[in-house]
Amino acid sequence: xxxxxxxxxxxxxxxxxxxxxxxxxxxxxxxxxxxxxxxxxxxxxxxxxxxxxxxxxxxxxxxxxxxxxxxxxxxxxxxxxxxxxxxxxxxxxxxxxxxxxxxxxxxxxxxxxxxxxxxxxxxxxxxxxxxxxxxxxxxxxxxxxxxxxxxxxxxxxxxxxxxxxxxxxxxxxxxxxxxxxxxxxxxxxxxxxxxxxxxxxxxxxxxxxxxxxxxxxxxxxxxxxxxxxxxxxxxxxxxxxxxxxxxxxxxxxxxxxxxxxxxxxxxxxxxxxxxxxxxxxxxxxxxxxxxxxxxxxxxxxxxxxxxxxxxxxxxxxxxxxxxxxxxxxxxxxxxxxxxxxxxxxxxxxxxxxxxxxxxxxxxxxxxxxxxxxxxxxxxxxxxxxxxxxxxxxxxxxxxxxxxxxxxxxxxxxxxxxxxxxxxxxxxxxxxxxxxxxxxxxxxxxxxxxxxxxxxxxxxxxxxxxxxxxxxxxxxxxxxxxxxxxxxxxxxxxxxxxxxxxxxxxxxxxxxxxxxxxxxxxxxxxxxxxxxxxxxxxxxxxxxxxxxxxxxxx
Length: 553
Description:
Elements: E1 13-27, H1 39-45, E2 51-54, H2 67-74, H3 78-85, E3 104-109, E4 112-118, E5 126-138, E6 143-156, H4 157-166, E7 187-192, E8 197-200, H5 206-216, H6 223-229, E9 233-234, E10 244-247, E11 255-261, H7 269-276, H8 292-295, H9 297-301, E12 302-303, E13 317-320, E14 324-330, H10 334-337, H11 343-348, H12 350-377, H13 384-407, H14 417-430, H15 432-482, H16 494-517, H17 519-530, H18 536-547
Parallel strand pairs: 9-10, 11-14
Antiparallel strand pairs: 1-6, 1-10, 1-11, 2-3, 3-5, 4-5, 4-7, 5-6, 7-8, 12-13, 13-14
Helix pairs in contact: 12-13, 12-14, 12-15, 13-15, 15-17, 17-18
């Protein structure tokens, strides 16, 4: 790698800047009967909302199925193909066959054309083209993922680094002395297809964020993101809406970045570090050479299978930190910028799916963990209704976790070494395997608790039945010894017989219910009788606890 010093006149230019922000959001669960009223169905049925259901590329018209779609499809193993695209279809099965559909449902907004971004106060605004704006829903998961895909041309590398650091924040992390939001872009505006402003950021409204956090113990997101997601609304807000969401992790959104430069070999090591860690490093801060992320940058984050550092190339470097995947290559290379067969096509298709699945895994596991915490926090063992609600939530979560494991969770997604290596690198940095083991153990502990509680209840029931059986045995032996007809109730008028039967039934029902009510004390009395070390007075006290109210003698 060359490490030549750069002058301001020779500052690197990004000829093509392409980025995707992937923002996982937790959805508030909906009460539904037999699968009706799921989140995407509610959204699809809403009138006047801007999101439209998007069919996948596997349409009935083969002319709309491009080679880049085919290359994406064959890059993955069959079980991953079934996750992303659904099962294979045949002429004998209808197009709308539910079991054959993908568990992923995608909605797209087409009314947003561009992003006008002002990075700092007084700076000239940047105009970035919105390629796609999608919202992903997943079967069986209370989870949605926003995907914003945008593009720019002819931007200084320093400007790109600042975009990556400042844009993609759900809310400001603080404010400076002038009341401007820290670290976030000064102003972000969504521009519609007719040139109208659809939504504008409001990070300068410090009182709004302070009041919301104080009142709800939850951060409030910036207006330009809230406006983009509507009719979905923030869970704790007073805004009405059937679909409500909450943040899962830190407000920084995961990002995929594609940078086409004239000659990436001219970048110094510091340039590489700042590009790879652009979402973490403030553009104005000095680089700390002794920090582990900087010192071990190449070993930790770089995937250099396609970096040869020669004139013949290829000179494409992949940098993955978990929350960011950056691809840097030579803009003069036709293969690198080819949108149908080259790296750009792979970036938007194969690598996007790799990055999406890795973050889907982490987000889903965090949602499972949050549900468990909420169930435990709402448990009051002194209230039967709370215990029943806790059991229902845990069993439902356990069932959903099993479906997640068999439908979404896997370690191998491609036989192509580079795609698989990027997936493992991203998953390792996100800590998905450790998080999965932790959530699985938590659910297993909850399940074991429910099993032990059920066994305890069954044991108590057996004890009660045993006590009642012993009392019945006494009555049976007694009547058997004297004969079944001690008192000739069978003789007399029919009315007298009926009256005797009713009285006897009431007496026996009372005795049985009394025995059930005192079964715990009766069981203690029987244990006291069988205890050879206990004296006569102790056994009499145990008998007295059966008869006296409160069990005291």
